[in-house]
Automatic annotation (TrEMBL):
<keyword id="KW-0694">RNA-binding</keyword>
<dbReference type="InterPro" id="IPR050886">
    <property type="entry name" value="RNA-binding_reg"/>
</dbReference>
<dbReference type="InterPro" id="IPR035979">
    <property type="entry name" value="RBD_domain_sf"/>
</dbReference>
<feature type="domain" description="RRM">
    <location>
        <begin position="4"/>
        <end position="82"/>
    </location>
</feature>
<dbReference type="InterPro" id="IPR000504">
    <property type="entry name" value="RRM_dom"/>
</dbReference>
<dbReference type="GO" id="GO:0003723">
    <property type="term" value="F:RNA binding"/>
</dbReference>
<dbReference type="InterPro" id="IPR012677">
    <property type="entry name" value="Nucleotide-bd_a/b_plait_sf"/>
</dbReference>
<dbReference type="InterPro" id="IPR048289">
    <property type="entry name" value="RRM2_NsCP33-like"/>
</dbReference>
<dbReference type="Pfam" id="PF00076">
    <property type="entry name" value="RRM_1"/>
</dbReference>
<protein>
    <submittedName>
        <fullName>NSR1-nuclear localization sequence binding protein</fullName>
    </submittedName>
</protein>
Amino acid sequence: MENTKLFVGGLSWNLTTEDLKKAFEEIGEVVEAVIIMDRDSGKSKGFGFVTMKTAEDAQKAIAEMNGKELDGKAITVNEARPMKPRM
């Protein structure tokens, strides 16, 4: 079974990668969790990615976490799509 990467948006600026990982570990096995940081300011861009070990865990995470409040903000969770090439 292959890993499934999820996009997580609407994150609180205070949320850490560890907080994000812990929240998703309640649902299933997390392979990797990362919050995207701004290169210049070093601050969170308010979104990140969580890679779940199985597609089943990923679907369960989408069902349970999408719209849920994390650190006071409702988050968006869906399957990550490949980045579009920049022109």
